[in-house]
Design a protein that fits this description.
Aminopeptidase
């Protein structure tokens, strides 16, 4: 597995393919909610297994978001590989901490990576989330 920053058309389209499949198709989130203005200014990451796109994430300032792994590749450390690459890039940018809004069911995954949940549960795209943070 390897992670690429989406800097060309193919990697960008692969990134949006994964997000579209996970969030729009699987979780029934409206595309108008999934794709927002942050995508223009964020660093977009695409995870590949050989040449097949299987994961995506984005980093906007110190905000991690849109972390997605195709269903058939979950529970195979793909999310960890993706987050490790994102965090390495964040450190190279000089960021000292990261924040994300995690869907409640996936909080244990982020806790295993050193993130701490804080605040109340809130709805985003009609899905329960909680804020999390990590010092780098």
């Amino acid at each position: 597995m390897n992670v690429k920053i989406a800097e060309d058309k193919k990697t960008l389209l692969d990134h949006f393919y994964v997000r579209g499949h996970v969030f729009i198709v699987e979780q029934a989130i409206a595309w108008t909610e999934e794709f927002d203005d942050w995508d223009y200014d964020a660093t977009l990451f695409t995870l590949y297994d050989n040449d097949k796109p299987i994961g995506a994430a984005r980093l906007y300032k110190n905000k991690v978001g849109r972390v997605a792994v195709l269903k058939e590749h979950r529970h195979k450390k793909c999310g960890t590989v993706l987050m490790d690459a994102l965090e390495k890039h964040a450190k190279e940018l000089g960021l000292k901490s990261l924040e994300l809004g995690a869907q409640v069911y996936i909080i244990p995954f982020y806790e295993s990576l050193g993130y701490t949940a804080y605040g109340d549960v809130f709805l985003d795209a009609n899905i329960e989330h909680r804020m999390m943070k990590k010092s780098l």
